[in-house]
Amino acid sequence: MKTAADLYATGQAPGAASAALADRHWLRAHLDDPRVRVVEIDVSPAAYNDWHIDGAVLWNIYADLKDADYRTAGPEVLQGLITRSGIGPDSTVVFYGYAPAFGLWLMRLYGHRDVRIPDCSRDAWQAEGYPRARVASQPAPGAVHLGSEDPGLRADLAAVRDAIGRTDTTLVDVRSAREYRGECFWPSGGAEPGGRAGHVPSAVHQPVDDLYRSDGSSAPSRNCAACSARPSWRATRSSSPTAPSARGPPPPGSS
Questions:
Q1: What CATH superfamily is the domain 155-246?
Q2: What is the tens place of the pLDDT at every residue in 164-189?
Q3: What stretches of the chain show up as alpha helix (H) in DSSP?
Q4: What gap in Å lies between CA 158 and CA 160, rounded to an integer?
Q5: How many helices (H) and strands (E) does the chain have?
Q6: pTM of the shown model
Q7: CATH number of the domain at 4-148, please?
Q8: At residue 61, what are phi and psi to the nearest 5 degrees?
Q9: Using CA atoms in the order 17, 25, 208, 81, what is the torsion angle rounded to 10 degrees?
């Protein structure tokens, strides 16, 4: 298999519309390619056990990617996870499921650039009759070694505080309307002390659900009015992007 750079040079890129998207037809044709690794991300194994894209492995957000305080796992944990997922230095990694953008962000945060999200939802993949499986995949161990964290992909607390009220920076809150208004913490309705309801001062609201069509594909860029309102922006959802919230995360302590 050619690498992503080779594919783009020859016009055979997995995502013709965007470097972050993988065409679903391309993905279907490359499910047996050892350099294409598919990962489903969800808050529990239920959906994956019911069915998953043929050859996909599962990353459980709470069991694999979050610590007891809901902070994102560090590079050592992620290194072990991608090793058991069969991801190598030349792998094209395709994330789908409940929170594919979380996986894309994590991989790019530590230097793996060839990461993509399908141009369709999980439900659309099933509806179109594409290959599915119920037996968990067990790929051979991968050999990719993560690099250092890219400081341009994560805003720390000091950076967020500094951005409040600035005219050259936009803080974007991508949570639900109820979360943004301070009516609850998490879509599932959790409350303090598990989390603080409300939003960062001066943050504009751009619900992530509005950025997807009904079939789960990405909506036109014009839908992201908040993101284009100013020269730059930083997301404010736990320092890690997530996918559309058809259901909220489980209560604290669930996996």
A1: Rhodanese-like domain (3.40.250.10)
A2: 999 999 999 988 888 888 887 776 66
A3: 4-9, 24-29, 46-50, 75-84, 100-109, 122-127, 157-163, 177-180
A4: 5
A5: 8, 10
A6: 0.78
A7: 3.40.250.10
A8: -55, -50
A9: -110
